[in-house]
Amino acid sequence: MELDIVKSSRGKKSNLCPKAALLAVLLWTFGPGLSPVLAQKTDVASQIGSQISQPDPQINSQIDSHINPQLNASVSNKRRPKIGLALGGGGMRGAAHIGVLEVLEREGVHVDYIAGTSMGSVVGGLYAAGVPICQLEERFTHGNVMKHFMTAPISVRLAVAPAFLPLKAMGSHQYDGLYRGNIFRKFLDKSVPQEDKNIESFKIPFCAVALNLIDGKPYALSKGNFGKALQASCALPLLRRPVRIDDKLFVDGGVLVNLPTRQVRDMGADIVIAVDIDESIDNIPMSDFEKLGSVVHRVICLHLAKVDQESLKLADIVIHPDLNGIRMVSTKRKDAKTAVAAGIAACEKALPEILKLVGPENLMVEGQVLKAPCENLDTLKN
Q1: Which of 10, 66, 165, 378 lies at a C-alpha separation of 20 to 30 Å from 210?
Q2: Residues 314, 316, 321: CA angle, nearest 5 degrees
Q3: Does the annotation count 112 as an active-site position?
Q4: pTM given for the model
Q5: How many helical (H) and strand (E) elements, i.e. helices and strands, does the chain have?
């Protein structure tokens, strides 16, 4: 087709020379009178030429997309990396997760997926359901969470445990454990909006990790009733009774998976931030083991530290707040405040690494606080 166009232009005779000669005569004879007109025409022509010579960005982008489709595809496929948060278990020490979330919100680091075990599932689940950071902090520092988690002191439960033995002799089918956890489940269900009773309706995709006693495997509970899933994830053996869901019998996921980095990666996270709330395993004096429950506490801490070693390898960034001295079953409000502050300090320390990995261009709101407004905080004190 291009060849045909060239041939047709050569076959046509040109009238350029006679026209040029006539123009020269007119300029010689009437030059002074015609110069303003010609000058005006020249200006118009130059304007038209300049408009034609200036490139159109939209046209150029369309041309580039055809000339270099590979480059265009690479630009269109570029997306913000998905960020996953793995929140570990550890009882009262889990309040540190609130401090971490507060810093991430403040810096505009948007969390796309959350996986939590035990108390990590409580904080992560409430946040994924849309509960503001300030309300989460109030629930812990005012003692509401632990009050519903430990409805009675362990010493009292142990004292009244023999009273339930006749029920078993009469054929009562109750699973092993001091607490059932039903009050805690109802408290959690009331803490989220009515329309968010099921996990799949949460604003942020979420899963709670629990261990099935039947087949010995950990499960990521990402559907169904929110309170039930968290009751299962927090069912610490001996302390709380297992929770039955369908044909499975769940206990605290921390037995095998205390830091669910693999689970949040499987949800689709490109970047995994792990919040490890284990105590540091340092040498302690022998006299410390004379206290009631000290041996059990130490054994649990050693077990969790061992279990979390493999999970930490799957994390891109690890945040490890200093929580030494805070016991898992603590009900002290002071411990909750200390844990939140430790979470803030640890996340701020890791912030340069986080921002470098996420990229400043991917922050949702740079330099602005994203906190949701705290309303009706007085109701949290009841």
Answers
A1: 165
A2: 95
A3: no
A4: 0.72
A5: 15, 8
Instruction: Read off the pLDDT of each residue in 334-338 and give the average, rounded to a whole number.
Output: 95
Which residues, in sequence order, are bridge partners of residue 85?
114, 273
Residue 261 has pLDDT above 60, yes or no: yes
Whether 118 is a known active-site residue: answer yes
From CA 128, how far away is CA 170, in angstroms rounded?
A: 43
Q: Check 252, 278, 308, 335 and give the catalytic one.
A: 252
Structure tokens at 104: 């991430």
| pLDDT tens figures, 189-223 | 998 877 778 999 999 999 999 999 999 999 999 99
Q: What angle do CA 262, 110, 85 make, to 5 degrees?
A: 20
**Alpha carbon separation from 75 to 56, 59, 81, 271, 290 (Å, rounded):** 20, 17, 14, 21, 64
Exposed/middle/buried for residue 222 (C-beta within 10 Å: 0-12, 13-18, 19+): middle
Residue 230 CA to its chain's centroid (Å): 18
- 8 Å CB contact between 266 and 219: no
pLDDT at position 172, please? 56
Furthest-apart CA pair in the chain: how many Å?
131
DSSP state of 150: S
Render pLDDT for 154-168 as a digit per residue (tens, 0 to 9): 555 455 555 555 555
Which residues on neighbouring strands pair with residue 164, listed in sequence order?
Answer: none
What is residue 198's DSSP assignment?
B
- Of 118, 121, 311, 330, which residue is the catalytic one? 118
Q: Is 262 helix (H, G, I), strand (E, B) or coil?
A: helix
